Structures are given as C-alpha cells and as structure tokens.
C-alpha cells in the first residue's frame, strides 16, 4: 500500500506524552493535529466490571474507532497535501492491545483470530503514514504520569 507523504503518527505507552508532543509540534510548526478520539466507550464500565467477558467487544470497539480516526486523518492529508497531519495513536498499534488481551487470557483464540482477520483486512487497504515516532518511555514513568493525571482529575 502506498504511503501519504504528509501523515505522521505518534505512538507510545499510555501516558508516554503523545498528546502533549502532538500539541507542541502542532503549535510550533503549524501542523494539523488529531488527538486520539476519547469518545464514550459503551463497553468501558462493563470491561472494568468483568474484563474476561467484555474484552473482545471492548477491543473490537476500539479497533473500529481507530479505523475511523485514521481514515479521517488520511482524508485530511489527501485534501490538504501542503499541510502535515499528525495524530497520536493509530489503528496500526491497536493489535498490540488485542495481543495482550489474548496473552492474558481475556479473549479466546477464536476471538483473537476474528480480530486479526478484521485488522489485517483493514491495514492492507489503507495508506501507510510517512513516519511513526515511538516515544520510548519506561513503564514506571508512564505509571507515575497516570497517577498524577488521576490526582488532577479527582481534584
């Protein structure tokens, strides 16, 4: 699949600083920034209540959201070829979460196979980004940042 010459993805662990870097780059270089969508996941509460029961639906919902988000970014990149589009998290990293759910026993082999069929079908049909920047932040630092964010939210 061809790549889009003006599409950049930021990847990294949860609380690695993707969104902060996204905004800093967008402001500094006048880039078109797209944050990871944070719409209400209808499976979130159910997932936390019973992860084994709801992990598959939870993961498939996220996959669909990330597919739509990436397609939107591609459309903007095509419509605005002189502008660089930058987004945090993408459909390409979604499989990491699904694989982890499978390895941890939250989704079955059959469910993981279903996920991979959809994932592979989609990623084979969409343009690749120009580049992916991975923020290599230790799990300890990410956890520390998550705790800080939780404290700010609960105040």
UniProtKB/TrEMBL annotation:
Keywords: ATP-binding, Kinase, Nucleotide-binding, Transferase. The active site is at residue 88. Residues 9-149 form the Deoxynucleoside kinase domain. SUPFAM superfamilies: P-loop containing nucleoside triphosphate hydrolases. Gene3D superfamilies: P-loop containing nucleotide triphosphate hydrolases (3.40.50.300). GO terms for biological process: mitochondrial electron transport, NADH to ubiquinone. InterPro entries: DCK/DGK, Deoxyribonucleoside_kinase, DNK_dom, P-loop_NTPase. GO terms for cellular component: mitochondrion. This is Deoxyguanosine kinase. It comes from Spironucleus salmonicida. The lineage of its organism: Eukaryota, Metamonada, Diplomonadida, Hexamitidae, Hexamitinae.
């Amino acid at each position: 699949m061809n790549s889009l010459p003006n599409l950049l993805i930021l990847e990294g662990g949860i609380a690695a600083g993707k969104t902060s870097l996204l905004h800093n780059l967008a402001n500094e270089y006048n880039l078109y920034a797209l944050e990871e969508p944070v719409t209400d996941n209808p499976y979130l509460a159910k997932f936390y209540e019973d992860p084994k029961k709801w992990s598959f639906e939870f993961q498939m919902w996220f996959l669909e959201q990330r597919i739509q988000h990436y397609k939107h970014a591609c459309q903007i990149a095509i419509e605005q070829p002189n502008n660089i589009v930058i987004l945090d998290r993408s459909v390409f990293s979604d499989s990491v979460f699904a694989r982890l759910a499978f390895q941890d026993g939250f989704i079955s082999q059959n469910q993981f196979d279903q996920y991979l069929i959809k994932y592979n079908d989609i990623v084979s049909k969409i343009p690749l980004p120009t580049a992916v920047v991975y923020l290599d932040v230790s799990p300890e630092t990410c956890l520390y940042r998550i705790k800080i964010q939780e404290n700010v939210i609960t105040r």
